[in-house]
Design goal:
Helices cover 45% and strands 14% of the residues. It is built from ten helices and six strands; from the N terminus they run E-H-E-H-H-H-E-H-H-E-H-E-H-H-E-H. Helix 1 (21-31) crosses helix 9.
Length: 269
């Protein structure tokens, strides 16, 4: 691969540390010739190491609370000024569950927490797209990718309310994808990634068992964060100009495997 994103400019939400998919995607996009603006919530900027990444890829860091419309307007204004024009791609790599953090079971969730979870993890995509739409900040033929998980379609008991949040996120992807496609040929897709050892992912109860099971259930094994970053690069590139409103499984085949020989043999022991 060489310079697939040469001349393209984009905003990457959610790089916290080197384990995060957003971090790996920023490195991959930079390697393919893109210019980038990094953003995260002010608290995440204090907790993470985003400034190290910014130095590596020569990118400004613009703080933004993704649920706050004024912050998002400021982010897009500053990005357009920095780039000297609109953006070509956006990565939405954001998710946070207050009920999981507070140890609330799905059957006993706090609805106030739930509202915040849905706002941060799903409706934030709508807010990002709405802000870009109102400001006409995404260039013709641009590409937006949001990260999701198969718990939106299937039950993983300890994934809790995040399953509902991901289902809503995927719905926003389709609905806004239609309107933005008609208006400016902007494509919007979600990637349903294998369980990945990120700081956020590792917070899910029983996560190690989860990863091991998925590995045994995937013909190709689990997809790594680095592999996911390369897939995202392909969706930001001009090679995928007609792909939109899709939920794309990037999971080594897990999503379409009923059972594997390895699981059968393990259950027989």
């Amino acid at each position: 691969m060489n310079q697939l994103l040469k001349g393209k400019k984009g905003i990457i939400f959610g790089a916290l540390d080197e384990k995060s998919i957003a971090w790996k995607t920023a490195l991959a996009c930079h390697a393919q010739g893109a210019e980038i603006v990094l953003t995260n919530a002010p608290i995440a900027l204090r907790m993470g190491q985003i400034n190290e990444l910014a130095k590596q890829i020569n990118a400004p860091v613009i703080p933004a609370d993704v649920t706050n419309m004024d912050d998002l307007k400021n982010l897009f204004e500053a990005s357009v000024k920095h780039f000297g024009g609109g953006v070509d791609f956006i990565l939405h790599s954001i998710g946070m569950s207050l009920n999981v953090r507070k140890g609330k079971h799905y059957t006993e969730m706090d609805y106030g927490f739930n509202q915040k979870t849905l706002d941060i993890s799903a409706m934030s995509l709508h807010k990002v797209l709405r802000t870009a739409w109102d400001m006409d900040a995404i260039n013709e033929g641009g590409s937006v990718v949001a990260l999701t998980y198969i718990a939106a379609q299937r039950v993983f008991p300890d994934y809790n309310e995040m399953a509902d949040a991901k289902a809503l996120l995927e719905s926003v992807t389709r609905s806004f994808g239609y309107h933005y496609g008609v208006r400016k040929k902007v494509r919007i897709n979600s990637i349903s990634q294998s369980p990945t050892r990120t700081t956020a992912g590792s917070g899910v109860k029983g996560f190690d068992g989860f990863v091991e099971y998925a590995e045994k259930m995937s013909p190709l094994g689990n997809a790594s964060g680095e592999d996911c970053a390369l897939y995202i690069v392909s969706l930001f590139s001009d090679l995928t100009r007609m792909v939109t409103m899709q939920n794309l499984f990037h999971d080594g085949g897990f999503s379409f495997t009923g059972v594997t020989q390895e699981i059968i043999e393990q259950m027989g022991k």
